[in-house]
Every structure is written in structure tokens, then in C-alpha cells.
Design goal:
With 123 residues, the protein is α+β, with helices and mostly antiparallel strands. The chain contains four helices and three strands, in the order αββααβα. A three-stranded antiparallel sheet has the order 2-1-3. α2 packs across α3. The chain starts with 17 loop residues before the first helix and ends with a helix.
Length: 123
């Protein structure tokens, strides 16, 4: 794993175990994270959560696998399509925890909003 992510890169082919993910998530509290495309190192999604929320997007893409994503949520469609493209290239998306240990939902909502603003400034 690289120093910023909980997903494997080319040097570490094994994904973290469910036990490791559970332990990490229990220590994070409320957090804000980004999903990152390992092909170019650019984030493509910002989210907030607790527990294993950061790892749920891969399962979401699996559940939609083979089906066209529902047309009512463009952001979800783009995220799922990006994850599918990354997987088709033989890689897996990364997740970076931007901030953790927050104590209120208003705090993590403000951090998420700032991260989204930052993400929109990327090329």
C-alpha cells in the first residue's frame, strides 16, 4: 500500500483484509475521504462517513456490474463508471482519508464541502 491509501498499488497486490478495514474504520470516527484514480493520481469523488463507508463504493460498483447505472443520479453514475474503467485496466481505486476523528456531523459536512470545492478546481 502506498502511504496515502488503504488500497493496493502495483507493489502490493493484496488488498487489506476485512479485519484490517474494520479495525481502521473503528479508529477513524467521523471522516472525509476521496476516491482516487491510480492511473493518474487524481481524485474523482469526495465523501464523508464513518465505519466502512470509504470501502462501500467498490461494492456499489459490483452490485451495478453488468447493468446500466440508474439515470437519476449523475454523480453516482460517473463514480461507478470510473471505478469500472479503473478495474478494466487491472487496477483498483484508492481511497485517501483527508481528515478523521471529527466529533460532529456539521464539522465533517464543512470539511467535505471544502474538499469538493478543491476537487472542482482540478483539471
Amino acid at each position: 500500500m502506498n502511504q496515502h491509501s488503504l488500497t493496493p498499488n502495483a507493489r502490493t497486490p493484496e488488498p487489506p483484509s476485512e479485519a484490517v478495514l474494520q479495525q481502521v474504520s473503528s479508529e477513524l470516527g467521523l471522516y472525509v475521504y476521496m476516491l482516487v484514480d491510480p492511473r493518474n493520481g487524481l481524485p474523482f469523488y469526495v465523501g464523508k462517513g464513518q465505519g466502512l463507508r470509504f470501502s462501500s463504493h467498490g461494492y456499489e460498483a459490483d452490485a451495478a456490474s453488468g447493468d446500466a447505472p440508474e439515470e437519476n443520479d449523475a454523480e453516482t453514475n460517473e463514480k461507478i463508471e470510473r471505478i469500472r474503467e479503473i478495474r478494466a485496466s487491472g487496477l483498483e481505486h484508492e481511497f485517501w482519508i483527508l481528515r478523521h476523528g471529527m466529533t460532529s456531523k456539521s464539522e465533517y459536512t464543512a470539511v467535505e464541502a471544502a474538499a469538493i470545492d478543491l476537487l472542482h478546481s482540478f483539471p
